[in-house]
Amino acid sequence: MDQGLNRRGFLKLSAAGSALLATGSGLALLTGCSSNDGPAQGYRYLRSQDLDLLRPLARAVLGPAIAAVPDASADSALHAFENLLDGAMPGTRAALFQVFDLMQLAPARWYITGTWAHFADQSETELAQTLAHWSASDRSLSRMAFKGLTQPLFMAWYVEPDAARTTGYPGPPQKIVA
Amino acid sequence: MQDLSTLQIKGIKDPWKAGIAGGWNVIDGRTLTSDQTLEADVIIIGSGAGGGVSAEILSQRGLRVILVEAGKLKSSDAFNMDEGDAYRDLYQEGAMRANKDASMTILQGRTVGGTTVVNWTSSFRTPRETLQHWHDRYGVKGLDRETLDPWFERMEKRLNISKWAMPPNANNDVLRKGCEAMGWRWAVIPRNVSGCWNIGYCGMGCPTNAKQSMLVTTIPAAMTAGAVLVHSAQADHLLIEGDKVTGVAVHPLDDNKQRTGATLTLKAGTVIAAGGGIQTPALLLRSKAPDPNGRVGKRTFLHPTTFSYGRFDQEMAPYYGAPQSMYSDEFTFKHGVEGPAGYKLEMMPLHPGLASALLGGYGADAREEIAQLPNLTGAIALLRDGFHEDSVGGTVELRDNGEPLLDYPVNDYLLDGAKRAHLTMAEMQFAAGAKAVRPGHSHAGYYNRWQEARAAIEGFDYAPVITGMGSAHVMGGCAMGDDDQHCVVNADGSYKYLDNLYVIDGSVLPTSLGVNPQLTLYSLSAKNATALADKLTA
User: Fold this and answer.
1) May I ask which residue range the UniProt record assigns to the signal sequence (chain A) (predicted)?
2) So where are chain B's domains?
């Protein structure tokens, strides 16, 4: 990955202002700038750098939800995420991966979350502070990225039957096919 | 505690199992790995409300019909009421569809039967105000209520539409009680069901075949009349020779929605685009269909929908029971047809996946919130978009790979409507006895009193993304009407700039409707497909 090109791309993007960012066209500037070594071992879509990003994020966003399911871990949440990605179209996944790639860049993390450090390098307390700051940001790109990353994590997790039942939902009736 | 998890649903006959055994002609795109050509009298692209109704009418008139569907064929034996399975197999983009800036989640069907397989069964006739507006502003002729009423009657009878006769579930009773206490109008929703078990899984494919979707009504009738269904096959582009459409190039898809590599060429004297809002404009854009005023994909509407969550002391079980049975039109046209955004009030079912995604947040607070799901209720307000000059809707674009993407900025007109809708819903929920109410806004918490909620709503930053919005109704993008500056389709469904091409789906609506769209689409499609059948068999 050419970090220089990425930084230039990012600076251009931040200078263009939030109106441009809100249209999402800013994200497209970064298309093609990411490394793509294919999915990580044991995964169908997520690459190893995505796991580094999403594993700590899943712990911070879904921690108590994961703890409510016996034997579940942050990796369970990432596998659930993959089940959700299964249904998406290639273009949907590509747009999501652009956000992942953006979050790999320190200046982007600073602009979006207010913190330079990679999620994997933040303590639990630091990450909680990062989320508090990020979720309250009034920047359009920050808001888009927060929703874009956290909403699918929730959806993916709570459609899993074991997780769904921890909400108090008893589950669906049984369909019996003769 | 309400618990349906031990209820057994058995003894349900899957009409597709018997139909296929009896000789229905079904082609599974996943099995197509070499190029093929098929011919017919009419090709229908899309099997939802427009395509399903058209298929029945045309094939019963003796025309050879091929119905093409990008989604899979799944029917009652496969409907297991699992939320994740439903999103993956029955919804566009696996329920991850959103507008371009991710400010609105878009729930739209993608399966044989289209959105009719996953909608919540609410069936309303088109409001007179909407039809009059189309006539006055877009030159839509011959679609007044008196002309349409026989078509509504016909489709109400065909799909067993009548007001829900059973008591509402606790979630919907909030709307009734709240509106009653406030002195606001409310009424019972007409539903397209027959022998409904009242369990609450309309959004995941009806496991009992009670919902009279296209999957169990018009499409089986078309199959019996000799229609061919090609599913798991995406219409890529129209075949255009001069100013005529002669067929469609179709890409069969494998289980991962990737091309199998084969091309299926469908040839016919008449082609009906029925992919619905977003898909039909995208097909025309990929086909580079003539469009002198650049209107294809423009003015795509969503009924942008805002949310309000009411928490009760008692159990509400918002995941069980008919998902929508009560509504209020108190605010739909209150400030005039072309005034500030009006909104229709309804309730939404809350299953864990969708509910948690809409509630948002993170960490311990989010966990605490979702863990009270049994006591939660969800009110929604459908904003009527497209009637005011500041409400121009969205524009369908194509990604580099040809997939559609809707650029629909959430502007101040909508945000003003969202704020007023939040006030209305919170007041209604407190009036119905809610212990605490949380407006669907990222900055909102739960408020214990109406005055507290009102003060909070008045103080929020109403901006895109943080203002929770979604859509389950995609309309427009290929507007019908005589006004060529805005419209690309005539009122009979014919495309203005190509011969042999008809658009019979929700994309022809010049604005949103102000009501859930299915009955409008069934009736308008029946009218236009009947006229087309008359023409083709003359």
Assistant:
1) 1-28
2) 15-121+124-158+197-297+477-537, 170-192+305-384+411-468
Q: Which of B201, B258, B362 sits opposite A150 (nearest CB)?
A: B362
For chain B, give the mean pLDDT: 98
Instruction: Choose the weakest-confidence range: A17-31, B275-289, B299-313.
Output: A17-31
Share of chain B above pLDDT 90, in %: 99
Correct CATH for B170-192+305-384+411-468 of 1.10.1790, 3.30.410, 3.30.980, 3.30.1490: 3.30.410
Candidate from A61, A152, A170 with C-beta closest to B363:
A61
* A-interface mutation test, from B351, B370, B415, most A Cβ less than 10 A away: B370
Q: Cβ contacts (< 8 Å) between B359 and chain A: which residues?
A: 154
ipTM reported for the complex, 2 dp: 0.96
Q: Which residue of B74, B101, B108, B171 is the best one to mutate when testing the A interface, meaning the one whose CB has the most A CBs within 10 A?
A: B101
Q: Contact B84/A159, CB-based, under 8 Å?
A: yes
Distance from CA of B444 to the nearest CA of A (A): 11
Residue range B260-276, pLDDT digits in tens? 999 999 999 999 999 99
Interface of B with A in 126-165 (CB under 8 A): none
CATH for B15-121+124-158+197-297+477-537 is: 3.50.50.60
Nearest C-alpha of chain A: how many angstroms from B187? 28
Encode pLDDT of A141-175 as tens digits.
999 999 999 999 999 999 999 999 999 999 999 99
Contact B93 A167 (CB under 8 A): no
B524 and B147 in contact (C-beta within 8 Å)? no
Q: Out of B89, B96, B258, whose CB is closest to A88?
A: B96
- Number of other CB atoms surrounding residue B146 within 10 Å: 8
For B11-14, the CB contacts below 8 A with 24+ separation are B11/A178, B12/B76, B12/B77, B12/B207, B12/B208, B12/B209, B13/B76, B13/B209, B14/A177, B14/B75, B14/B76, B14/B77, B14/B209
Q: Does B39 touch chain A (CB under 8 A)?
A: no
Are B420 and B340 within 8 A, CB to CB? yes
Model pTM score: 0.95
